[in-house]
Design brief:
The protein is built from nine helices and 17 strands. By secondary structure, it is of the alpha+beta class. Among the domains are: about 130 residues, Trna Endonuclease, Chain: A, domain 1 (3-Layer(aba) Sandwich), CATH 3.40.1350; about 120 residues, no CATH class. The strands form four sheets. The protein has a seven-stranded mixed sheet with strand order 12-11-16-17-13-14-15, sandwiched between helices. It has a five-stranded mixed sheet with strand order 1-5-6-9-10, sandwiched between helices. The longest helix is centred in the middle third of the chain and has 20 residues. About 5% of the residues have low confidence.
C-alpha cells in the first residue's frame, strides 16, 4: 500500500465482510480458508491469492468475500457451502450486474467436475458441495436485481433498515478511524488491508495470525470485535425459511430470544408487517404464546413480498396457501461453544396480518 491509501468506501466493505464472516460462524457455519482444503492440485477447490479466497468452478476460479460451510450435512445431500458478498454503499441500491454475477459464480461452482481425468492413475473423484449465494447490502436492491435474484434463488439481505443502523454505524466508524490512521502513518509503515483483516479475524473468528499492528489500528479493531461479541445492541442472526433464501433477523435484545428459544426449541410465532421507514417492507416475529418475550424483525424485498401475495390470487382460502408458503417454518442455529443449537419457528397461518 505504498503511496495511495485505500478509500473509506472499500475499507467499509472489507470490514463488513469480516463482520458477516463472524455472523456466519455464529449461525452454525464454519468459515473456510484455503488451509481447510488439504488436497493438492488438481483436486484442490480452495486457494488463496493476493485478493483473498478463491473457489474452483468448472470454468474458472472465483473470488469470494466470505465462504461458510454448514457444520452438519443434511441427510441424502451434499455438504452445504454459502458464498457471502458484502456491499457497503450509502445511497445507490445494488443493481442487476451484482446479482447476475452471483448467479454466474454459483452456476459454475455447482457444475464443477466430479472427477479429475487428467490426474495420474484412474482419475480420482472430487468432493462435491452444494453452493448457495447471499448478498448483503447497506443500501437495498434495485427492482431488477430483486426480480433476477428471486428467479435464480439468490438470497438478498437488506441492511438498510433502521434495525441495522447500529451495525452500519459501527462498521462505518471503525473504517473511518482506520482510514484516518492509515493517512497519518508513513507509507512504508502502513499495514496492508489483508493484515488488518487478518488481525480482526483473531478476536472475531479465533483465527489468530502473526500480525503485528500498532495500538492505533488494534484499538478500533478490538472495539469492533468486542461490540459484536457483546450483542448488546447488535442482535443479528441468520434464519433459514422453507424457501431458497436466507433472512437476516434483527433484535434489540437477542438474548431474550435465545433464552426463550432454549426453553421452547420449537414454537409457534406470529408474523406481521410493521410501519417502519425503510427501503423494503419490514416484518416482525413474536412468540404466539408469549408475545412479550422477544421481538425479531426482518426485511422482505418488495418484489419478494409481492410475489408471495400474487401466488395467493385466485385461491379460495388464504390460509391454505400460507400453510405451505415459504414463511411457514424458519430454522435458526445458535452456536453454544462448539455445539450448534437448533430452533424452529413455526408460522401459524391465522396469525398473518399485513397491518401493524
Amino acid at each position: 500500500m505504498a503511496g495511495k491509501v485505500i478509500g473509506k468506501g472499500p475499507l467499509r466493505g472489507y470490514l463488513l465482510e469480516e463482520v458477516l464472516a463472524w455472523l456466519l460462524r455464529s449461525s452454525g457455519f464454519e468459515v473456510l480458508t484455503a488451509d481447510d482444503d488439504k488436497d493438492k492440485e488438481p483436486w484442490k477447490v480452495l486457494k488463496e491469492d493476493k485478493n483473498g479466497l478463491l473457489v474452483r468452478g468448472r470454468g474458472a476460479w472465483h473470488q469470494v468475500d466470505a465462504l461458510g460451510q454448514f457444520r452438519y450435512v443434511p441427510p441424502f445431500s451434499l455438504p452445504v457451502r454459502l458464498f457471502v458478498e458484502a456491499k457497503y454503499l450509502t445511497t445507490t441500491p445494488v443493481g442487476l450486474p451484482t446479482v447476475r454475477n452471483g448467479h454466474g459464480v454459483i452456476h459454475d461452482v455447482n457444475e464443477g467436475e466430479t472427477t479429475t481425468l487428467t490426474a495420474p492413475g484412474t482419475g480420482r473423484p472430487r468432493t462435491r458441495y452444494r453452493y448457495s449465494y447471499a448478498i448483503f447490502s447497506t443500501s437495498g436492491f434495485s427492482p431488477e436485481a430483486q426480480d433476477y435474484a428471486l428467479a435464480h434463488q439468490i438470497s438478498l439481505i437488506d441492511l438498510s433498515a433502521p434495525d441495522f443502523a447500529v451495525l452500519r454505524n459501527l462498521v462505518k466508524t471503525t473504517a473511518d478511524t482506520i482510514h484516518a490512521a492509515l493517512e497519518a502513518t508513513p507509507a512504508a509503515e502502513r499495514p496492508k488491508v489483508r493484515e488488518i483483516r487478518a488481525y480482526l479475524r483473531g478476536p472475531l473468528l479465533d483465527m489468530y495470525d502473526a500480525v503485528d499492528l500498532t495500538d492505533t489500528f488494534r484499538v478500533p479493531l478490538d472495539y469492533l470485535a468486542q461490540a459484536l461479541h457483546s450483542r448488546s445492541q447488535l442482535g443479528l442472526v441468520l434464519a433459514f425459511p422453507a424457501a431458497p433464501f436466507v433472512l437476516g433477523l434483527a433484535s434489540d435484545d437477542l438474548y431474550a430470544f435465545v433464552d426463550y428459544a432454549k426453553a421452547h426449541l420449537t414454537h409457534a410465532v406470529r408474523l406481521r408487517r410493521i410501519d417502519q421507514t425503510a427501503s423494503h417492507p419490514v416484518w416482525e416475529l413474536r412468540s404466539a404464546e408469549h408475545p412479550e418475550a422477544y421481538a425479531l424483525r426482518f426485511g422482505l424485498p418488495e418484489r419478494v413480498e409481492a410475489w408471495i401475495v400474487e401466488q395467493d390470487e385466485g385461491m379460495p382460502a388464504r390460509t391454505r396457501y400460507i400453510k405451505r408458503s415459504m414463511l411457514s417454518t424458519m430454522t435458526l442455529y445458535w452456536m453454544d461453544g462448539e455445539h450448534a443449537q437448533t430452533f424452529q419457528l413455526r408460522y401459524e397461518p391465522g396469525e398473518l396480518r399485513f397491518a401493524s
